[in-house]
Amino acid sequence: MSMPEVKPLEERPLDKRPVVIEMKGLNKWYDKFHVLKDIDIQVRQGEKVVICGPSGSGKSTMIRTINRLEEHQTGHLIVDGTEMTDDVKNIELIRREVGMVFQQFNLFPHLSILDNVTIAPIWVRKMPRKQAEEIAMTYLERVGISEQARKFPGQLSGGQQQRVAIARALTMQPKIMLFDEPTSALDPEMIKEVLDVMRELADQGMTMMCVTHEMGFAREVADTMVFMDQGQIVEYAGCNDFFNNPREERCKAFLDQILNH
Amino acid sequence: MMEKPKVPLWRNPTVRARFYQFAMLAGLIALAINVYQNTLENLAKRGIGSGFGFLANEAGFRIGEISTLPVFKGGFLWFLAALFFGLVASKALANWLKQKHEKIGDKDRWILAIIALTVVIPLLVLYLGRDTVETVQYTESSSYTMALMTGFANTIKVTIIGCILSTFLGLFVALGRLSPNWLISKLCKWYVEVNRNLPVLMQLFFWYFIVIQQLPNVRQSVNIGDWLFLNKRGLYLPSFIPQESALAFCIAVAVALFSLVFIWRRSKRVLETTGEPGKVLIPSLAVLIGLPGLVWLVGGTPFALEMPVLKGFNFRGGTGLTPEFTALVIGLTVYVSAFNAEIIRSGIQSVSKGQREAARALGLKERHVMRLVILPQAMRVIMPPMTSEYLAIAKSSSLAVGVGYPELVSIGGTILNQSGQSVEIVGIWMAVYLSISLLISAGMNWYNARIKLVER
Amino acid sequence: MSFQVIEDRHPPVTKTGVLGWIRSNLLFPWYNFVLTLVSSWIIWSIGKPFIQWAVIDAYFGTKSEVCSTTSGACWAFIRDMWPVFMVGVYPEDLRWRPLIGLVIVLALVALTCIKQFRSTRWLRFLWLLSPVAVFLSIGGSETLGIEVVSTDYWGGLMLTLVLSAVAMIFAFPLSVLLALGRTSNLPVIRATCVAWIELIRGVPLITILFMASVVLPLFLPAGTELDKVLRAMVGITMFFSAYLAENIRGGLQGLEAGQYEAADALGMSYWQKTLLIILPQALRIVIPPMVNNFIGILKDTSLVGIVGLVDLLQIAFATTSSPEWFGLLEEAYVFIAFWYWVLCYSLSRYSQHLENKMDTGR
Asked: What is the per-residue pLDDT across B97-146, written as a single tens digit (0 to 9) for each?
């Protein structure tokens, strides 16, 4: 009897890795308005998914259902083996494993940078403050903000704030990171510093879902591309296929518009 | 070198500015002199003296609601000195710690030192020299000064009770408005809309002339478990008569309350070092019940309960709240609570949705989201307008004159009618209210400066 | 798999339909259900007795004798006395004159509502004239041969409105000057304005009314007579000038520094800058808080009862102490509460409307 060879996860091809996010027939309505229509997505461990599409297409809403910032009405959503239900316990369990970075940074203005980053490990993971601060400092160092740890969010630039927001999410040591247009509110010269941090994170094998219009970044980092329009997935393909021969007209038009000006 | 060109005086901005200001000052002084002369002439014509000498005269009228007033003798200065010394020493301690980059909150012993300096030692001094404080009560033969002091005490009483009650009522209504329950949120909305769009004086009259007048006579009082009695003449509650061990009991309660701070701090320390929250509930209850309980067991009952009992035509014993007081407190509370509710609601809503989402996305529990993220930010928005509402209560308590509750304006009005010393009385009113206002706004400015967000 | 457009569907009923709405807004989770029960009970225990009294058991006829026997409200009182509530003891045969005043104002409001007329010069002129016209129609004038009605006869809703309007009209220019003074960089002028504003904001209106009614006559040269209504007007105007000034100061400070700099760069003098650039913008911003201020005036005029005037609030007591309608205070109260509430509530809605319009207009 020969034992099948078990490779470490990182070396396995994507389709051999475990699924960490699964959406099956997911639907969501705002009142009568149908915002997400029959969404089916599978994200495997270590996969980088970039979601694009015109504004109002439901892409933000979709990734926000993953940690229950938006409630879905029908269909299934399974994150890291836990089905998302009304159960508060499941919601808390999933939110612990999923980090999120917002367009508007959403740092807590009344807390220092260090407190912003340690608040979750202390209160959610029940980590001793000393240990939380040590971890926080390592992540702040990685995003290059460690000197500013005692300052307040209002004293930092947008790019710096967004890097702190990334560090804040990472300090919870999540399995999955969600990025909701992380660079849209930034001045051009600050976009690069944030994208660099994200690139580094991708290189380290983090599972990432990212809504963004930065197509250069997507081409470089993404394993899988998702194009959404009017609440449904129009094109769902590997990165190369998506950029080189998109199947759908709408997707082509969108790419043309965003790449050629 | 070029010579500076000469500017004609009237085109020089500095000279112009000085001229305008001088003209204004001259105008004001001329007005003041004119008013002063007119007043003297008018007073002389009406045979009214001027000056504050009349305040020593006998008042001669009855006041329906009398507070016991403290009278301070020379020895009281020792207490003030101790308090002053305590405050100065605390400030010095804080400065010294600041040099060492520490805060008072960092160590229990600093907090203990502050409590000892500002509370324990001054109170001890006060206790040792307790014969320097006497209490007096207003009688008909007391002076006008005493009458005004009694009125002032009543103003303060209504203001403090009104502030506390309206804050809590406002908080409940605000939470109700924010509730996902449609019915309760609409109910609270209309509570606010009705109350803040009707004049406060009208509401006072409503409670006094309509609601309280609907209550039964003394003999048919509404009896709530033999504890509370409600009738046309007011609300009767049991009262607590202090016994021998009362002082020790009060000290025990105070010590227990202070020790809560330390229990809470210990729990936070335990949380930060081990990750598990330290025990709070059981030690707190043990201290809160244990200490006063011990005093009770050793020294006997600290307070005797005295029930109101119907004897003849009225109630004897217990504490009676007059209908005037009840109407005033209810009226002010209800009116101001509507404004407070709006302030609290908009304060909570002013914290952006993103803050709540970010806190949730980090996995914080709902109650922690509220406590750690929403409330600290909402408080900055809530406190300044809330302080103006507290000021408004202090000022609106003067409407008591409409229902005859004897506070500062109402008693001043009586004195004004008796003595005709209108300038002096109105002056006293304004000085008193102005001091209250300035005191509260100074406190508010200090607080706002403390909680201000750090910005670039 | 080729792409197909998915048609919009309706959400499942249990989640977002009427049932879903009831479920999430009234019944679920359990404490929501308890809250629903509690609030229903509150509404029932206040609403039912009130409707019983005001409608079901009420008497809507005209005979005053019935009032002492009915257990419900006696609306005969209001039917008979409502003109008194409106104008107080204003001479009965001259009641058409306040009505004319009202018609003048309503006509102007109606004209202003028509878009073509809104910013015409003649309409502004008419608005400027209207206070005089209203005053003449209510108070009369000897020189113009209109019979004079002394202010002693003014009362009711009319007095409340006249006091509020006068306070607003006179407090406005005063408060603009105070606000400019407070933001000026001349120390004496600034200190004077700060002292005035803080002094008045620090004391209750009632003390200012007492001052205006008993102290002010002492300040004036001997022999000057001021009637009671005029004294109250002076007091209320002083009081609100301080509050208005603070609002306007907020507007002045809300303007961007660029506006001041641009005006300076164009070489304008202080008054040109203030009148042409700063004030028009600042005042526009502060219209909604000024409407709220006016609501405050409207409510606070009820205090003039304490210094002896008979405004809308005092009319309730005056009418119910007449032998014919003795003790019908509840009915009177419902009636005046209705007037105060409708006026204040509609004004507050108007201010909110303006605020929303401004927010979206930017």
From this structure: 888 777 777 777 888 888 888 888 888 888 887 777 777 888 888 889 98
Looking at this predicted complex, what is its ipTM?
0.90
More confidently predicted of A156 and C117: A156
Helix axes C156-183, C121-139, angle to 10 degrees: 130
Contacts with B352 from chain A: Cβ below 8 Å: 104, 106
Q: Which of C1, C2, C3, C4 to mutate to test the interface with A (most CBs of A within 10 A)?
A: C3
Judging contacts by C-beta atoms under 8 Å, the chain C residues touching residue B194 are 341
β-bridge pairing A33-44 and A82-83: unpaired
pLDDT exceeds cutoff 50 at A251: yes
Beta bridge partners of A235: A227
Q: What is the pLDDT of residues C236-260, one digit of tens each?
A: 999 999 999 999 998 888 888 888 8
3-state SS, residue A74: strand
* pLDDT, tens digit, 9 for 90 and up, residues A178-219: 999 999 989 888 999 999 999 999 999 899 999 998 999 999
A56-60, B308-312, C276-280: which range is least confident on average? B308-312
The whole-number average pLDDT for the span B318-342 is 91
Judged by phi (left if over 0) then psi (alpha if -120 to 50, else beta), residue A53 lies in: left
Task: Determine the number of helices (DSSP H) and then strands (DSSP E) in chain B.
Answer: 17, 10
Q: Rounded to an integer, what distance in angstroms lies between the CA atom of residue A80 and that of residue B330? A: 56
CB atoms within 10 A of CB B156: 16
3-state secondary structure string across C94-151: HCHHHHHHHHHHHHHHHHHHCHHHCCCHHHHHHHHHHHHHHHHHHHCECCCCECCCCH
Strand partners, A83: A78
Neighbours of chain A (3+ CB pairs under 8 A): B, C
Q: What is the pTM of this model?
A: 0.85
Mean pLDDT confidence for C252-272: 85
Q: Do B39 and C218 touch (CB under 8 A)?
A: yes
Half-sphere exposure of A235 toward its Cβ, with a 13 Å CA cutoff? 25
Q: Which of A121-135, B162-176, C322-336 has the highest mean pLDDT?
A: B162-176
> What does the alpha-carbon distance between residue C60 and residue C79 come to, in Å, rounded to a whole number?
8
Which amino acid, one-letter code, is at C122? W
Phi, then psi, of A224 in degrees rounded to 5: -135, 140
At CA B411, angle to CA B408 and CA B413, rounded to 5?
105
Q: What is the DSSP letter of C324?
A: G
Q: Chain B: residue nearest C315 by CA?
A: B202
Rounded CA separation B35/B417 (Å): 22
Dihedral, CA of residue B228, residue B231, residue B233 and residue B238, to nearest 10: -10
pLDDT in tens, B248-293: 888 888 888 888 888 888 887 777 777 666 677 888 888 888 888 8
Looking at residue A1, its pLDDT comes to: 46
Q: With contact defined as beta carbons under 8 Å apart, do C154 and C101 qualify?
A: no
**Contact between chains at A34 and C8 (C-beta distance less than 8 A):** yes
CA angle B177, B180, B186 (to 5 degrees): 40
Give the whole-angstrom CA distance, residue B24 versus residue B36. Answer: 18
Which of A108, A116, A117, A130 to mutate against chain B (most B CBs within 10 Å)? Answer: A108
Q: Specify the pairing of strand B234-237 against strand B319-321.
A: antiparallel
Question: CA B313 to CA B325: how far, in whole Å?
Answer: 21
